[in-house]
Specification:
2 domains, 5 helices
Length: 120
């Protein structure tokens, strides 16, 4: 139960997408199939992680202990960068502009267009 509550911040968006998919199901069998597929995918990932962590417990603990200071700094930097990106992306909308046309939104659109090469 504690894992379910702890992982809610990461899995809530995916779960809500699954719920949205089931709302379009034409019959109850499709609804059940979507939930079974979601449960099977989640269970596969969790079992694979649990088994691999149990098999490599000692080596994994040493590696994580050695990398912990660097990981926390990198994670903090990524969080600050993603927060700054989100603020810059949504700032025109928050100011009341109908269509955001900032440099950040153009970069996002350019980098997510299929068939185009990624350029800064």
């Amino acid at each position: 139960m504690s894992y379910a509550i702890g992982s809610l911040s990461c899995t809530l968006a995916v779960f809500l997408a699954v719920i949205g998919q089931t709302l379009t199901a034409a019959n109850p069998l499709q609804l059940i199939a979507v939930f079974v597929a979601y449960a099977a995918g989640s269970a596969t990932v969790l079992i694979a992680l649990s088994v691999s962590a149990a098999l490599a417990k000692g080596a994994l603990a040493r590696a994580v202990r050695r990398l912990a200071p660097a990981i926390t700094r990198v994670a903090g930097t990524l969080l600050v960068a993603s927060g700054a990106y989100l603020i810059l992306y949504w700032l025109p909308t928050l100011r009341g502009e109908a269509v955001p046309d900032s440099g950040v939104s153009r970069f996002s659109q350019r980098s997510s267009t299929p068939g185009r090469r990624f350029r800064l």
